[in-house]
């Protein structure tokens, strides 16, 4: 590992970024444009019908956001010119073969000739995604990106962003080690990417042959994803297809320098380009939103559990430093956990306290102009207590409503169906997220720590590319950065 100036490494560099309008990808692009305006070219691949649609989507979903306000302040009316000179926006799709859906043959040749770094951020992170979508994007798409990278004559490194939760429900210290092809979490044999592809395609074909509606097909493919994941020990199709991708990339990489990045739960920016920028309801933020609006009065989970969260800009900073650190290491593979459960752990109960104090001092104002008064959340610390709670507060009233509805000739049919839907929705969420509510694993980040130490010794710009979890004061971060950011950018 040879560490030099990160800013200098980025100078005159040509980088391909897939999934360019995603949350992390936008932070990555903004960071590079801001700290190294002399980057040669960022090829930004995103789904769109044509170039104009791709350009419009990138401008609307990235450049127009607050995230780019420092660049906007610096370049003013010249911002679009500055960005257009350093980026090429490409309509494409990593599920469409090793050309990544790029139809312009001249552009393809140019990319194969010029690209030095490939950063694969295209993915679906939905726990309840259709199996065909998850497999095609998270696994097969990753293979296509690898095959594209192999054609790049100047390739220095391929950085693939995975997730720490490929570990499934493992407890204890989880190491930064690869998964071998066919390895499963529960010891079940027979895991094979070709078999998974065949099962997915044949199920889809059969459903269409039977004339199933799109709604029926979607429901069936979601159930198939859960079934296939749990057969081999993973809790959902998202982490299963991400684990499959890691296995196949490791097996097929040949001499490609491969870095696999496993971030934990990603939250709002810590400091860069400014504190608190976030987009969409991201994992724990659904709890913040629900609690702040007075909708979350109880929660299922172990209050003493360690919640592994990491600010988005720290993830991006670590990504950029690893690109430089592992450039030109032909045939190498290294895995980085980027999280906080070892270096700076925080318990679930502390998050609850931060939320309680914040919304007591800064209550959400509802549509009627009244402040929402929050209270302490009733934490159900076991599945048994949750089932008792659901039975007492929901299932018994539902049964009573069903009886009354029958007696009164379906007079309360709409109310009954609405309550039934709500209960079904909650139970589905518990089914999907249950494995993480009592998660007992912590993520070893020794490779990441070694990189930090090596960077410090080499004198690289760790002030510009900070990814040290120890620099986070959790109370200050949640009270003054993250929750205010969620309120500003996520609350509707």
From TrEMBL:
Residues 394-492 form the Fatty acyl-CoA reductase C-terminal domain. Its EC number is 1.2.1.84. Keywords: Lipid biosynthesis, Lipid metabolism, NADP, Oxidoreductase. It comes from the Eukaryota. One of its GO terms (molecular function) is alcohol-forming long-chain fatty acyl-CoA reductase activity. SUPFAM superfamilies: NAD(P)-binding Rossmann-fold domains (SSF51735). CDD domains: FAR-N_SDR_e, FAR_C. It holds the Pfam family NAD_binding_4. The keyword Oxidoreductase applies. PANTHER family: FATTY ACYL-COA REDUCTASE 3, MALE STERILITY PROTEIN 2-RELATED. Catalyzes the reduction of fatty acyl-CoA to fatty alcohols. This is Fatty acyl-CoA reductase. It comes from Anisodus acutangulus.
């Amino acid at each position: 590992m040879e560490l030099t100036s990160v800013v200098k490494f980025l100078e005159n560099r040509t980088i391909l970024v897939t999934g360019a309008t995603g949350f992390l990808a936008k932070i990555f692009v903004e960071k590079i444009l801001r700290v190294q305006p002399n980057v040669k070219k960022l090829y930004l691949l995103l789904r769109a019908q044509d170039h104009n649609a791709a350009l419009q989507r990138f401008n609307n979903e990235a450049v127009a956001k607050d995230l780019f306000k420092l660049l906007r302040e610096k370049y003013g009316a010249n911002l679009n010119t500055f960005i257009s000179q350093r980026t090429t926006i490409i309509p494409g799709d990593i599920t469409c073969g090793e050309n990544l859906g790029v139809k312009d043959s001249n552009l393809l040749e140019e990319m194969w000739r010029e690209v030095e770094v490939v950063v694969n951020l295209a993915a679906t992170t939905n726990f309840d995604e259709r199996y065909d979508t998850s497999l095609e994007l998270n696994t097969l798409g990753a293979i296509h990106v690898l095959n594209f990278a192999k054609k790049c004559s100047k390739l220095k490194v391929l950085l693939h962003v995975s997730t720490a939760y490929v570990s499934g429900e493992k407890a204890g210290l989880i190491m930064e080690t690869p998964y071998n092809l066919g390895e499963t979490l529960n010891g079940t044999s027979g895991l094979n990417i070709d078999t998974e592809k065949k099962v997915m395609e044949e199920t889809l074909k059969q459903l269409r042959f039977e004339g199933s509606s799109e709604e029926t097909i979607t429901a069936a493919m979601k159930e198939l994803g859960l079934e296939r994941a749990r057969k081999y020990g993973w809790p959902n199709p998202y982490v299963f297809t991400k684990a499959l991708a890691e296995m196949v990339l490791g097996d097929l990489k040949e001499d490609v320098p491969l870095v696999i990045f496993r971030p934990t739960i990603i939250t709002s920016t810590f400091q860069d380009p400014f504190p608190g920028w976030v987009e969409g309801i991201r994992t724990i933020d659904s709890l913040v939103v629900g609690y702040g609006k007075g909708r979350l009065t109880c929660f299922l989970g172990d209050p003493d559990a360690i919640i592994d969260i990491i600010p988005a800009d720290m993830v991006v900073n670590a990504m950029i430093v690893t690109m430089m650190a592992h450039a030109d290491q032909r045939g190498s593979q290294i895995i980085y956990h980027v999280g906080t459960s070892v270096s700076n752990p925080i318990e679930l109960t502390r998050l609850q306290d931060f939320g309680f104090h914040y919304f007591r001092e800064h209550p959400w104002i509802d549509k009627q102009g009244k402040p929402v008064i929050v209270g302490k959340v009733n934490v159900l610390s076991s599945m048994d207590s949750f089932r008792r709670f659901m039975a007492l507060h929901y299932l018994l009233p539902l049964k009573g409503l069903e009886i009354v509805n029958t007696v009164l000739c379906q007079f309360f049919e709409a109310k009954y169906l609405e309550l039934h839907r709500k209960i079904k929705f909650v139970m589905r969420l518990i089914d999907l997220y249950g494995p993480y509510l009592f998660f007992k694993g912590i993520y070893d980040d020794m490779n990441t720590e070694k990189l930090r130490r090596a960077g410090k010794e080499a004198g690289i710009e760790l002030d510009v590319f900070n990814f040290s979890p120890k620099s986070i004061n959790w109370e200050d971060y949640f009270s003054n950065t993250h929750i205010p950011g969620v309120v500003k950018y996520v609350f509707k």
